[in-house]
Design a protein that fits this description.
Layout lengths: L7 H16 L32 E6 L17 H7 L4 E3 L5 E3 L2 E6 L5 E6 L13 H12 L15 E8 L2 E6 L6 H5 L8 H4 L8 H4 L9 E7 L3 E6 L12 E6 L3 H9 L5 E4 L6 H4 L4 E7 L2 E7 L4 H4 L1 H9 L3 H7 L5 E3 L23 H10 L3 E2 L5 E3 L2 E2 L1 E7 L4 H14 L3 E7 L1 H10 L5 E7 L27 H12 L3 H18 L3 E2 L1 E10 L2 E2 L5 H5 L6 E2 L1
Parallel strand pairs: 1-10, 18-19
Antiparallel strand pairs: 2-3, 4-5, 5-7, 6-7, 8-9, 9-10, 11-22, 12-22, 13-20, 13-21, 14-22, 15-16, 16-17, 23-24
Helix pairs in contact: 10-12, 15-16
Length: 548
């Protein structure tokens, strides 16, 4: 759903945008049963809008898009569209692994510092111009690596030194240090732009492209865009691959998710992503709607402030994990749309996932025994104590999504084993400042959203313990080395081994208390057939979609 949402504040901004959209009223989108839904099946639509057709796929986006995939202002409102208009060197396979796209194959040097990509021959831009290595070099050298532009997602390429063309059909990525995940990240919203359009232009001010009719190499091209109303796509006749089976896709601009759902129920949309599991019930009862839930690479956690000596005892961390009834939380808060997490790498990354790690099923008695081993005994008021000090945890929580109700349940579970929890509910910005920036907390609950890649070193790196993404402040040189070795490994087998071992250590040591991996919920009309994966991954296989 998002770009490299590895920064919690960035994830917040993006998700907050979604929430803001969901909460707004007076959408310019169609009202249930018709209104101004151009191309909606049987809805009529505005005069002068696109034609209605039974083969038109109607989807929704929550705001006006920016068609430049590197624009600093383009996020979830734009990405479902640009994913269909542009290609990267690689794309997502249905197994969440990188597959050839504009590159047909690639290899890495023995020192891991030079990646060579052979480009697909005969590819054309949608204006008929040939695609060459010059486009790849321009995209990275002039946009991604141009720090003054602040391109969205450019921070993913901090270890990229330069990109050079060795021929019209081959490029080399020169790295500052080995990075085995490069082909994976090239599939993650890393689209190639046409040099012949952008050369000499400010890429953020080329409105004829960014807000008009972009030139891409993808399976679809933009054929009409009316701000505040819709974006129309039709197959790109110059696309190198198989032709799409759906002759027209329209993204209706509908900020309110409830309006989107109403449009789906009335037959004016065929696809909606559901951000709140509580909204699913009324969709499931409709015989014309199918609801699919797919695992995503998001993990919810409780961070314990490891600068405090009491939390440095792994028995205490394990006890607090055993005390949380995660299964009940998933059923109650997530309506079952989630799975108990054992670490940062979700089962959706089956190539890297290690499920054979230490487990922490709900066991309050085990929690009490571990705390007793750690020196805690019941005090006169029932609160555990050690060295005369009661076990009290101050737990700030932000007002967003399920964070507050989830924190309240954790409070109840921990108090049931004799740990007093002072919960402090605050607005989101205050929460970010106190917990993420200033690290003033004992425990706190939040989540990370990451690409489907096992490289999650940033969240555990000792060097990030004070100011980076390592919120708990965990430090483990052995784990650091495993992540670094995995990044530098040139063989897939070695990387798998390193990440498997890292997951084993993480499960035993619990740098975070892992809660659950949520599912992404998608509601579609039953006449629409798409791969049962996340939307971005499915869009990379849009030529296989059918609408009967």
């Amino acid at each position: 759903m998002k770009r490299m949402s590895v920064k919690l504040p960035i994830a917040v901004v993006l998700l907050a945008s979604l929430v803001a959209g969901c909460g707004s009223q007076g959408s310019t989108g169609a009202s249930p049963g018709g209104g101004n839904a151009p191309g909606g099946n049987g809805s009529g639509g505005n005069a002068g809008s696109v034609a209605t057709g039974t083969k038109t796929l109607d989807m929704a986006t929550n705001a006006d898009p920016n068609f430049n995939p590197w624009s600093p202002t383009g996020f979830l409102e734009s990405e479902p569209i640009t994913e269909l208009v542009f290609n990267g060197l690689t794309k997502w396979g249905l197994n969440y692994q990188p597959e050839p796209d504009l590159a047909t194959d690639w290899s890495v040097s023995k020192d891991g510092l030079t990646w060579t990509f052979n480009l697909r021959k005969g590819v054309k831009w949608s204006d008929g111009q040939p695609f060459t290595s010059a486009d790849v070099v321009y995209t990275f050298e002039n946009i991604v690596l141009n720090k003054s532009l602040g391109a969205n997602g450019a921070s993913n390429y901090k270890d990229l030194q330069k990109v050079v063309a060795t021929s019209d059909t081959q490029v080399q990525f020169i790295l500052k240090k080995p990075w085995a995940s490069l082909p994976t990240y090239l599939a993650y919203y890393t689209k190639i732009l046409p040099k012949h359009i952008f050369n000499g232009q400010n890429p953020w001010k080329l409105t004829s492209f960014d807000k008009g009719q972009p030139i891409g190499t993808g399976p679809y091209k933009v054929t009409n865009y009316v701000s505040g109303q819709y974006v129309e796509l039709q197959p790109n006749p110059d696309y190198y691959g198989s032709k799409p089976k759906i002759p027209k896709i329209i993204f209706h601009i509908i900020p309110d998710v409830n309006t989107q759902i109403a449009q789906l129920l009335s037959g004016n949309l065929e696809y909606v992503t559901i951000p709140d599991p509580a909204l699913v019930a009324k969709l499931k009862s409709d015989p014309n709607i199918q609801v699919n839930a797919v695992m995503s690479n998001i993990w919810y956690w409780v961070a314990l402030n490891l600068s405090e000596p009491r939390f440095q005892d792994v028995r205490v961390r394990q006890a607090l994990e055993y005390a949380i009834n995660r299964k009940a939380m998933i059923e109650g808060i997530m309506k079952g749309y989630g799975q108990e997490a054992t670490g940062p790498i979700a089962p959706v990354q089956q190539h890297w996932y290690n499920g054979n790690v230490q487990q922490y099923s709900y066991d309050p008695q085990k929690a009490k025994e571990l705390l007793k081993e750690a020196g805690y005994t019941p005090g006169p008021n029932g609160i555990l104590q050690k060295n005369g000090q009661p076990f009290v945890i101050n737990m700030p929580t932000g007002q967003y999504g399920v964070l507050t109700p989830a924190s309240e349940l954790v409070q109840q579970y921990w108090q049931a084993i004799g740990v007093k929890v002072n919960l402090n509910v605050m607005d989101w910005n205050s929460f970010i400042k106190q917990v993420v920036v200033n690290r003033k907390y004992d425990a706190s609950l939040a989540w990370w959203s990451t690409p489907t890649d096992p490289d999650q070193y940033a969240y555990f790196a000792s060097e990030n313990a004070q100011t980076g993404y390592n919120i708990p402040g965990y430090k483990n040189p052995q784990l650091d080395k495993l992540f670094q070795d995995a990044n530098a490994a040139t063989s897939d087998a070695q990387r798998v081994q390193d990440y498997q071992q890292a997951q084993d250590i993480i499960a035993k040591q619990l740098p975070y208390l892992f809660l659950w991996w949520p599912k992404t919920i998608q509601a579609t009309a039953k006449n629409l057939t798409i791969p049962n994966v996340g939307l971005v991954q499915a869009e990379d296989h849009v030529t296989d979609w059918t609408l009967n």
